[in-house]
Amino acid sequence: MTLTAQERTPVPPANVPCGDCRVDSPRGRWIIAATVLGSGVAFLDGTIVNVALPKIQANLGASFTELQWVLDAYLLTLGSLILVGGALGDLFGRKKMFLVGLVGFGIASLACGLAPTATTLILARGLQGVAAALLVPGSLAIITSSFDAAERGRAIGTWSGLSGVSTALGPFAGGYLIDVASWRWAFLINGPLIAAAIVATIRHVPESRAPAPPGESVISRLDLPGAITAALGLALVVYALIEVSRLRSTMVALLIGVGVALLIAFIQIERRRRMPMLPLHLFRSREFVAANVITLLVYGGLTGTMFLLALELQNVLGYSALEGGAAFLPFTVLLLVLSPRVGALLPRMGMRVPLTLGPLITAAGLLLLVRVDAGSSYLTDILPPVVLFSLGMCLVVAPVTTAALGAVDPAWSGIASGVNNAVARIAGLVAIAVLPLAAGLSQGSVGSFTEGFHRAMVIGGAIFVAGGVAALIGLPSRAHKSADSVEA
Fold first, then answer.
1. Which residue from 251, 241, 305 is spatially nearest to 76, judged by alpha carbons?
2. Which end of the chain has fewer CB atoms at under 10 Å, N or C?
3. CA–CA gap between residue 45 and residue 73 (Å, rounded)
4. Helix and strand tally (H, E) in the chain?
5. What global pTM score does this model have?
6. What whole-number distance in Å separates Cα of residue 75 and Cα of residue 319?
7. How many C-beta atoms surround the C-beta of residue 7 within 10 A?
8. Could you please report the per-residue DSSP string of 94-146?
């Protein structure tokens, strides 16, 4: 029997925020601290590894392709399983699954820090991504379900700003650890951060979940066919793009064709399941669709360009790991100072203005990086673009998350945050595979790498411009709850 869209889509009960959860209350601050620490280690490892790549390459004898996989193994498992992670939190309890993710991430980080070969490191990075698939959507779902509508925008803005700082702090902190100790500490440093997050979560975070409808078992609500199909489809496409120089053209076409077919099959599976991990009814909201298109473009541009900039600074300009990380310090400071303020203004300003201007300002910063070469000065050639880029991202980080979650009922916060974060990680996954290829980037010589880097910055700028245009077209002009928001 074929189920209608309404029958296939369960209606979870609304979440009830804890009574004293205000952003400026002691419990509210502890909730934000716990979720920032937990998701922060996942975001930290998304950037800290960029600075460690040259040392990993030298110490383990890794090829450029293996360096791509060190990043993409993490993004692949995170991006393909993050929807499952969000759903597991809704089913078993967001606090419980968040704690499971913290423990798993700690174990995987230890394996990364002790990895004897590039292959072992790539496998351990994949395990990190599995654990992060519980942490990233879990942190946002806890925030959304703990704070009421009046406090939610400010709470998400604070979370976004502090989480963005952890992302931006990665290159600086990682550079210091790598220079004074070893690249392995880029992973081992996660241990004390995770321990602090576990203690704060156990003591202060309230439990919340979306209980199964009458007659539904927990096992029946897990979408294993969808998860497996999505993961295989993404893996085949990304493998073909990264390994394109070592595979025959017919094999590349075959892998991409099979991967795309599996992704199409994934959509069909989700349409037919009663409890899909990707509820397609969410996409009836124009604002939700627009927010995720913007996320795809902005985070794809961010991840791909920062990967290449880190290599340009160390391999071409001769920066140490610490100097390469310090080059991103303005990003850290500006996100810390400005992101919470932008989040607080969103109820009055709306999402359209910052999400249109932010990507355009970021694109201008990337275009200025085209001047960077082996003889460039940090103060005149690198600092101004980094500052401009950072100002643009301050207008993006909190609004794009708030737009995605604000377009759905809070009862769907786990799935909605999972979808938005999956889009962001998949965007980075594809960008790391595609951007070097599209830019004709080569490590054959300093000059050839720099030429490819310049082309990549232009392409990255164009991607950000497209993100600004998507916001201008797809988001409402004023601050209000979208009329076509998906409600339970």
1. 241
2. N
3. 12
4. 18, 0
5. 0.75
6. 26
7. 10
8. HHHHHHHHHHHHHHHHHHHHT--SHHHHHHHHHHHHHHHHHHHHHHHHHHHHH
- Map residue 456 onto helix, strand or coil: helix
**Matching residue, tokens 């996660």:** 190
Residues 6+ apart with CB under 8 A from 270: 223, 226, 276, 277, 278, 279, 280
Angle between helices 64-92 and 94-113 (to 10 degrees): 160
- Cα–Cα distance measured from residue 283 to residue 293, given in angstroms and rounded to the nearest whole number: 11
> How wide is the angle at C-alpha 273 spanned by C-alphas 268 and 275, nearest 5°?
135
Give the span between the Cα atoms of 415 and 87, in whole angstroms: 6
Calculate the alpha carbon distances from 98 to 101, 106, 134, 136 in Å. Answer: 5, 12, 6, 9
* Span 51-107, pLDDT tens digits: 888 889 889 998 888 888 898 888 888 877 877 787 788 778 889 999 999 999 999
145 within 8 A of 15, measured Cβ to Cβ? yes
| Residue pointed to by tokens 């409808």 | 213
| Residues 293, 286: Cα–Cα separation, whole Å | 11
Cα angle value 85/86/89 (rounded, 5°):
90
Cβ atoms of residues 138 and 98 within 8 Å: yes
Give the per-residue pLDDT at 331.
Answer: 81
Place of tokens 């993050």: 82
Residue 486 is given by DSSP the state: B
Q: Which of 10-19, 80-89, 138-147 has the lowest mean pLDDT?
A: 10-19
State yes or no: pLDDT of 1 exceeds 50: no
d(Cα 31, Cα 22) in Å, to the nearest integer? 10
> Which tokens in the block code for residue 199?
């203690």
| Residue 456 structure tokens | 């990549």
Tokens (6 digits) for 36 = 């920032």
Report d(CA 198, CA 337) in Å as an integer: 27
Q: How many CB atoms lie within 10 A of CB 76?
A: 23
| Structure tokens belonging to residue 90 | 């809704």
The CA-based angle 411-415-420, given to 5 degrees, is 120
